[in-house]
Write a structure and sequence with these properties.
single chain, alpha+beta, OB fold (Dihydrolipoamide Acetyltransferase, E2P), Alpha-Beta Plaits
Length: 248
């Protein structure tokens, strides 16, 4: 069981709710830690700020970066301007997915909801990740105390409400030193539905791998590249590869 941290770490991105706005600073609630953090005007936006409320308003949810933590004093210094648009988008999307996952549990489970949610969070970082994993392995639902009838209802709601995130890796393959196209075709033959290899123009090919688990498809990519390279070299050729895209 992972012990919940009392304070965030320096450099961590955190979701916050704006509570109080003063002339030169903003007080926020660091949501996951139930602590108060502070933003100075210098860390809200680069350049001169005429009106802080152009950037933050009470009860607004914002993404901040932790600059300094002083557990002894209970101080958490934060920055808004040091958060990239991509990081902000990713964390807010994660919050939305987590909120949707909790809504599914709340709709189905009428007793011991808080206890079940706590059981899940003791073993899994996020509720929505647990939902996706347990949907493919229902025994995980039982392990946290959910009965068979509720499991079926939850799975129905997952189909209805949750769009499963998929990852894609594209790799460009360059094959030289082999004139017989049939030898190349044989080397590129892959028996995996997640993998597609297509011809671009000599001597280039594209390998696309799509799946739900990024680590798994990355492992598949490395394994296949090693196998293809061995076949190409055995036939007297040379393989070079370059990753051209990672998408989610």
């Amino acid at each position: 069981m992972a012990e919940k941290k009392e304070f965030p770490e320096e450099g961590e991105l955190v979701l916050c709710t704006v509570e109080k706005i003063l002339k030169t600073s903003v007080f926020v609630k660091v949501d996951d830690y139930d602590k108060v953090g502070i933003l100075t005007t210098a860390e809200i936006s680069p350049g001169r700020i005429r009106n802080i409320r152009d950037f933050v308003t009470p009860n607004k949810r914002i993404v901040c970066k932790v600059l300094r933590v002083d557990p002894a004093k209970g101080h958490i210094d934060l920055s808004l301007r040091r958060v990239s648009l991509k990081d902000r988008k990713d964390l807010l999307e994660e919050f939305t997915r987590e909120k949707s996952a909790l809504a599914i549990f709340s709709k189905v489970i009428t007793e011991n909801l808080s206890s079940i949610v706590e059981n899940i969070k003791n073993e899994h970082p996020k509720l929505y990740i647990f939902l996706q994993t347990a949907n493919e392995n229902p025994q995980l639902f039982k392990k946290v105390g959910i009965n068979d009838n509720d499991i079926k209802k939850i799975q129905d709601l997952i189909k209805e409400r949750i769009k499963t995130k998929k990852f894609e890796i594209k790799t460009r393959l360059k094959i030289e030193g082999i004139k017989d196209i049939n030898v190349i075709k044989e080397a590129l033959k892959v028996d995996d539905k997640k993998v597609k290899i297509s011809y671009m123009s000599a001597p280039f090919y594209i390998m696309e791998i799509i799946g739900k688990d990024y680590k798994e498809i990355n492992h598949t990519k490395d394994k296949l590249l090693k196998e293809i390279e061995e076949k190409i070299e055995k036939a007297g050729g040379e393989l070079t590869e370059s990753e051209i895209a990672k998408m989610s």
